[in-house]
Design a protein that fits this description.
Elements: H1 9-22, E1 31-39, E2 42-45, H2 47-61, E3 64-67, E4 72-74, E5 77-85, E6 91-101, E7 104-113
Parallel strand pairs: 1-7
Antiparallel strand pairs: 1-2, 3-5, 4-5, 5-6, 6-7
Length: 116
């Protein structure tokens, strides 16, 4: 994780959520150069493309994730159930599955739940 000097997967994911809550586009620095972002039927590959995705999302929608429960860790895999609030007042219920290697996110797959 570079300047933070911590490779623990749970720490990396906690920092991801902290940066997203702040609307900090440096969230991309937590991803490896060849990372994948998978969800909603698509795959975004590479740090540059992921950076563009987050930059656009943060600017347009102002997503603010809030954990619905504990972060679950098994080895280098981390799962988190979240509710994402958006600047327009809408929200999404999402399950995020991270793979973290050497202190960087190599894969983030998100599953969107139907609202009750």
């Amino acid at each position: 994780m570079g300047d933070l000097g911590r490779d623990d997967p749970a720490t990396v994911v906690a920092e991801y959520f902290e940066r997203m809550r702040r609307g900090d586009v440096s969230v991309v620095d937590l991803f490896s150069d060849d990372a994948e972002l998978v969800g909603l039927g698509g795959v975004t590959r590479g740090k540059s493309a992921i950076g563009a995705f987050y930059g656009d999302s943060i600017r347009r929608a102002g997503p603010v994730p809030e954990l619905c429960g504990p972060i679950l860790v098994q080895g280098n895999r981390v799962a988190a159930e979240i509710r994402i609030g958006f600047s327009d007042g809408n929200s999404m219920h999402v399950m995020d599955l991270f793979v973290v290697d050497d202190g960087l996110i190599t894969s983030l797959t998100y599953f969107v739940a139907d609202e009750p």
